[in-house]
């Protein structure tokens, strides 16, 4: 009888473990943001997965902007300390095309809010993608993704856009 009780208890623990661990819906913010260099892949309107047309049909300007998406342009790196469900005191830095971006950041793994406080960004030479990249960082409100894809959402008037990032590969 004692063996049956022990087996029953072990079975209950085995069955309840996945249920209890599934309750933790908090992101590992440190794993998502830090330890890699993120490079921009595109900027889109929320709900769409294609590059937003910043050029309004100006094909030459679009081609010139796309030529700037090389090397360490449109990149970000983050560092910070885990404070439970958020990162605090973290800094970020990156490069657009002609200006560097930097500042402090805080992300909450529970509700996915993101605050980027940019410092001394200046105006980028690319008045389309460069400008959108800088403005997106300045107006960041939340993030999405994981350690393989990062999306920084920002508001532009009544429209929500996002900057899509992937980890930079070592060459």
From TrEMBL:
<protein>
    <recommendedName>
        <fullName>DUF4847 domain-containing protein</fullName>
    </recommendedName>
</protein>
<dbReference type="InterPro" id="IPR038670">
    <property type="entry name" value="HslJ-like_sf"/>
</dbReference>
<feature type="signal peptide">
    <location>
        <begin position="1"/>
        <end position="22"/>
    </location>
</feature>
<keyword id="KW-0732">Signal</keyword>
<dbReference type="InterPro" id="IPR032316">
    <property type="entry name" value="DUF4847"/>
</dbReference>
<dbReference type="Pfam" id="PF16139">
    <property type="entry name" value="DUF4847"/>
</dbReference>
